[in-house]
Write a structure and sequence with these properties.
Layout (H helix, E strand, L loop, with lengths): L5 H8 L11 H7 L9 H15 L3 E2 L16 H4 L14 E6 L4 H10 L8 E4 L5 E4 L10 E4 L2
Parallel strand pairs: 3-5
Antiparallel strand pairs: 1-2, 2-4, 3-4
Helix pairs in contact: 1-3
């Protein structure tokens, strides 16, 4: 299978997500549909595979009352309240926190682990939380296709 272009990924992701679901309100207010430019290409490729081919279920990132689950900018409260340098995968456009319809976060993590061969690049998932966090932040010395961490 040939690697999809960034534009192809975004077109296919439109079937499942609006950009407003994947970036904070500040970013979407300032950039609108052009906010796709801030999301990492490997992240977009993994998001498409996880949604369409692995979980095969609706996934919700940002929603009413939770607007910092995807890309976070310097104006987001979660970023501003950090008392130290904050360079998370969320501020780099490489992560999202999701709720998956019809399954627990643990069930979603298990399905992803069991289908890691479908992923185009290594990912990290946060273990022991009630949401599905995944990111494509490269980890020095980690060779696993799917690496679980605790924050």
């Amino acid at each position: 299978m040939s690697k999809k272009t960034r534009d192809e990924l975004i077109r296919e992701l439109h079937e499942y997500f609006q950009i407003s679901e994947l970036v904070c309100d500040h970013t979407h207010s300032a950039w609108g549909e052009r906010s796709w430019q801030f999301l990492d290409t490997d992240y977009l490729a993994c998001l498409l595979i996880i949604r369409r081919d692995i979980l095969k279920a609706p996934m919700t990132c940002n929603h009413t009352g939770a607007h910092q689950r995807g890309l976070r900018c310097n104006r987001c409260e979660l970023v501003q309240t950090k008392g130290k340098v904050y360079l998370s995968s969320h501020v780099l456009g490489k992560a999202g926190d999701f709720t998956v319809q019809g399954m627990t976060a643990q069930e979603a993590r298990s399905l992803i682990r069991n289908n890691a061969n479908l992923l185009p690049c290594p990912i990290r998932m946060e273990a022991g939380v009630s949401w599905l966090h995944f990111d494509v932040l490269p980890q020095f010395g980690i060779k696993q296709k799917v690496y679980e961490f605790t924050a």
